[in-house]
Amino acid sequence: MNRRTLMTTVAATGLAAVVAGCAPMASEPDIVDIASSNDQFSTLVAAFTEAELVDTLKGDGPFTVFAPTDAAFDALPEGTVESLLEPENRDQLVEVLTYHVVPGAVTSDQLIGERTDAETVQGDTVHIDGRDGVMVNDATVTQADIMASNGVIHRIDTVLLPE
After folding, report:
1. Helix orientation angle between 90-98 and 42-50, rounded to the nearest 10 degrees
2. pLDDT (tens digit, 9 = 90+) per residue, 41-64?
3. In this structure, what DSSP letter does residue 29 have?
């Protein structure tokens, strides 16, 4: 390799490094990205996908999602999850899932010591009791404030079912 070729190669490599350094940073993960990267939420992510809610939950938000774990879904009566995931039960699945979502970003510091009702995207309300830990209806928040670019996730131990 002659000297001119070597200098051109070095200059091009340096320019590429500078351009790469100026490239925008990858955006922060959204609610779906975070849930998808956590093995405890695989059933929830499958349900979001089947209900065609992924694009909505990747949207601007902000949203608060009370996210049941796989263990919470497993605790439902046998066959419930499989039934909800059937295409003919999509409307019921959407109703259950949107009952877990509250518009706006509600963090645990806003809930501590408080009792309140919050309207869900589904239209009904959930009762939140933050006086001794945080409870949402009969579900316990087992991990609060999983921050996403478009809201917040609170892991819960029970699937919330609208009445």
Report:
1. 130
2. 999 999 999 999 999 999 999 999
3. P
CATH 2.30.180.10 fits 28-156, yes or no: yes
Instruction: Quote the tokens at residue 89.
Output: 């039960």
Pairing of strands 151-156, 63-68: parallel
> Which token pair is 128?
């939140």
Closest by CA to 68, choosing from 90, 46, 92, 91, is 46
User: What are the structure tokens assigned to 49, written together?
Assistant: 């996908």
Where do the structural domains in the chain lie, given as residue ranges? 28-156
- Judged by DSSP in three states, 67 sits in strand
How far is residue 157's CA from residue 12's CA, in Å, rounded to a whole number?
Answer: 54
* Structure-block tokens of residue 148: 């996403």
Q: What is the pTM of this model?
A: 0.82
Q: What are phi and psi of 5, to 5 degrees?
A: -65, -40
| Of 81, 31, 90, the residue nearest 56 (C-alpha) | 31
